[in-house]
Write a structure and sequence with these properties.
Mean pLDDT: 84
Distance between the termini: 76 Å
Radius of gyration: 35 Å
Oligomer: single chain
Order of helices and strands: EHHEHHEEEEEHHEHHEEHHHHHHHHHHH
Number of strands: 10
Low-confidence stretches: 229-239
Strand content: 5-15%
Helix content: 40-55%
Amino acid sequence: MKNFKELVVKANELIEMPIDFNLMQLKLFAKIVVSMRDNPTEEFYTFSIKNLLNDFDLTDTNYTQLRLATKGLIRPVVIKRGGGAEQQKAFFTDVNYSDKGVISFKIHPDLKPLILNLEKNYTKYYFSNIARLKSAYAIRFYELLKQYQYRGERVLPIQEIRLVLKIEGTKYSKINDLKRFVILVAQKELKEKTDIYFEFEGIKEGRKIVAFKFLIYKNTRNTGFIENGRTEALENDVKSDLTNEQENLLFKLIDEYKISDKIAKGLIEGVSVEQVEKNIAYSESEYKKGKVSKNFSGYLVNAIKNNYASRISLFEEDEKKKAVDDKKKKAVKENKAKLKDKLSKSFSKEQKENFISSLDDEAKKKLLEDILEEVKSDSFAVTHIKKKGLLSPSASLPIITRIDDFAGKKEAYIKEKMEEAGF
């Protein structure tokens, strides 16, 4: 029987160390931390290989994988000291297998103070929070954010994320890759399987993202399962006579949404798998929109029973239709404005050219002199007009003001052309 209430306690210094442990090694280390707190004076910490595989939801076929993971624990880690000094020490000095199916670990004595007799600057959590996680990055993010849960947020520079998670070289060097393969993976797993979840946003310097701000929330939907646990006997009782697909959904309802075993089984047996899945997705969507009260479990039960996902209210239909109509109106308005601007410019250009063509050379010369006098305070306009003459855009306004009833003619022209275009 699994123990869901094993408490892992680590110094924050240990949590923030750059440790290149894979998924199984991180879980192994957490189990050893639990054992050390229970038996602080022991020299070796011993485990049944069968029990470890069971705790990690693995089978005997994963024995070789476990053995390789234990060997990888004997590696140095960097311990920072005051004044910028560093030391390298191996967490474990010995890892021994016996022919009786047990494995024992001996931790370096200098590292014990980071686990035992901690009075401040430490983080604690139930092992069940990480037991079901499938990503090493998810475990590391869980610990880093759990450490700051009391504050509700934590800012982590990108370089620090890469350092602590041991993401080296050019791996995930693009921000989108770091988000997709590391942060979003951790976000999904923590929300589904732990007692916290997070949202995040980029922090920029100029146009470049240099850090992420993580907003940390208590995951009330998982707290009951994690803190209270569920026995294997009960698991076997509720899942009898169900298909594999139904079993997976059953424990999803129990583990992730805190629906009681009896109610969850009734739902699974009473409606189709498709109806359960659709209403889980629908309820999640409504929850994100803020339309679900704190009692998410109750809402989800009613959604599955009454098949909320199959209903689209008249209000929602109206909202969709209104959104389409608004989009069309906006497009029409934008096209109308573009055409009006185009007509205004073409009319002004044509009228200006006609006015200039109607003048003889002497009148053109006089007009140019008059315009230069009018704009003499604008050095840019003077320079441009001297270079381009009356065809300069800077001369347009002074010329237009000399055309009889220009505004009225333009308005009539634009109105006529807009009507021809159907506006």
